[in-house]
Amino acid sequence: MIADFVIVACLLDWRDCGLSYAHIIDGCCGLLRGFYVIADFVNVGCLLDWCDCRFSFGWAWYHYCFHYLLMGKRQNVRKGKGRKLTHNHISGPSLHGRNTAPELTPHIHGPRHLPGAETTSSERVQIGSVAAEFANSTKSNKALKNQRKRVNRKNRKLLLTLSPISLEEATPMSRDETMNKKFSYFSGGVAIPFNDKTEIVYSVKENLKVINNPQFDNHSLGLIYKRDDSLSADILLCPRNDITERGLNKCDMLCDAFDVVLKDPKAKVTIRGNKSQNVRTDVNNPLRYICIGTHVNQGGKGGITPFSAVLENTDLVTRSLVDTFVASIEHLFCAYVSHEEVNIVTKAIELVDAPTFTMPPSKSNPNPKKAKVYGAMAVGVNVFLALHTDKDFAQSAVSVLCRSECNQDEERILAYFAFPALGIAIPLKKGDVLFFNPNEPHCITSRVSETDHIYCVSLYLKSATIGLNNNSIPLTDDQKSVLEYKNNLAI
Asked: What is the DSSP pairing of strand 295-296 with strand 304-305?
């Protein structure tokens, strides 16, 4: 078809009609939809080699084939300083061997809960979700190109280190079955007594497919599950080598630090939700579960409490251990979560100046460092949670810890993290870090063995934290610019 197009073109007087071979190549490139045309394109280039064109064939082939076909680049024109720029989110090689990620639009939320109310708090959450795309629209083509190179390098690394999760032979459980009026729990081994009127208990091994963890054979491999229409992974288990490198498998002192926090007189059982029944523990033991970090104030008070009062009485060693743990999780987040997701979260926090996890100021450290991604963490001892979803803004993280005395074999499974709607459960060993989509129904199971004494720790960033939970705070000029940009995208 292309060759015929060129032959017909040669019959025309180009000087009279004001066209050039670059226009022909431009038109041909718009018809291409796959890599198989590259050979034909080279042949066309040979036919045009005799012509002294204003724009070379190599330039045209690179600009259109590479940017449109290989990178999926969409040409959007924005208002610039006397020139036109093109922009889009930065994409790269897919973790499944093909580019399946869609264009970044306000209609694709990923792990984010976006409220629909027309209030300033809700608008801050909404503009936070497009803050990264707005930032890309202000960058030059050269800056976008350099950024794309970095993204490609990262994606090539992830292709080698993350093994795709197969849902074959998995039997997904319907949401009507698991997210009904009853609380649904999953047993990892330790039996769960329950009230059949308000609760229902499933078995991981009987009702779900336990994913074979490649870490058992190769510590340099992790796991990933990503839908074709998603920008980021719904499930991502970090390779074991990174866990040992960050020292998360040697967590005796960290467990001691969490004990100090849980034993503090100000420490009260706080639940990440409205229903306290969704967290359970052993029958004869008291519930030890607390949320520390930023707190979204409910009721008329509104606003965000920047840090937990329980941390004010802790010693410097405890603070340092907890702070280092958060930094290690965020390091893995930036290393393995997709560039798009990392960029969305960090740009949103920067735009609205959202509070993140931080220690209370002290004499020795009057200006403690803020976390980059997460706002708070939940810590529980020997707990298991009912199946639920969370109204978060970013992918949540979960890790299970225990002392060496109760788990000398670091390859042994301590608990499972269940995703019943997918029909799978991810086995978790000591120190493992799992990132997941909080919009996917999930829960931590009961322990595998009664002899284990485990600490389940999860980190999260609430959407209400991005909105600042205060409608009396007006939007800034920068936020209004992003809101206008978002509204133009929706037209």
From this structure: antiparallel
Task: State whether 177 and 294 are in the same domain.
Answer: yes
Q: CA 118, 121, 122, 128 torsion: positive or negative?
A: positive
Indicate if 55 and 192 belong to the same structural domain.
no
Distance of alpha carbon 486 from alpha carbon 131, whole angstroms: 9
Under a CB-based contact definition with an 8 Å cutoff, are residues 170 and 423 in contact? yes
DSSP character for 65?
I
Q: Is the dihedral of CA 65, 66, 70, 73 positive or negative?
A: negative
Element (H, E) at 235: strand 235-237
- The string of pLDDT tens digits covering residues 172-227 is 998 777 777 788 999 999 988 888 888 899 999 999 999 987 767 788 999 999 98
- For the sheet with 376-381, list strands across it: 162-164, 222-225, 235-237, 433-436, 396-402, 454-460, 376-381, 289-293
Average pLDDT for 431-456: 95
pLDDT band per the 50, 70, 90 thresholds, residue 267: low
Residue predicted with more confidence, 285 or 328: 328
Query: Of 26, 48, 70, at which residue does a domain stop?
Result: 70
Banded pLDDT at 74 (limits 50, 70, 90): very low
Q: What is the DSSP secondary-structure string of 123-171?
A: HHHHHHTTHHHHHHHTS-HHHHHHHHHHHHHHHHHHHHHEEEPP-TT--
Classify residue 220: in a domain, yes or no: yes
Count H helices and E strands in the chain, helices first.
16, 18
Q: Which residues pair with 454 in a beta bridge?
A: 402
Cα 487 → chain centroid: 24
**Tokens for 469?**
């939970």
Whose structure tokens read 């197969």?
A: 166
Domain range enclosing 26 = 2-70
The DSSP call for residue 396 is E
Query: Could you give the CA distance from residue 313 to residue 370 in angstroms, rounded to a whole number?
Result: 19
Among 22, 44, 70, identify where a domain stops. Answer: 70
Buried b (16+ CB within 10 A) or exposed e, 425-457: bbbbbbbbbbbbbbbbbbbbbbbbeeebbbbbb
Q: Kindly report, residue by residue over 140-174, the tens digit of the pLDDT.
A: 999 999 999 999 999 999 999 999 999 999 999 98
- Whether 277 maps to a domain, the answer reads yes
CB 205 within 8 A of CB 145: no
**How many Cβ atoms are within 10 Å of 218's Cβ, its own excluded?**
13
Q: How far is CA 370 from CA 279, 315, 326, in A?
A: 29, 18, 10
Domain with residue 287: its CATH number is 3.60.130
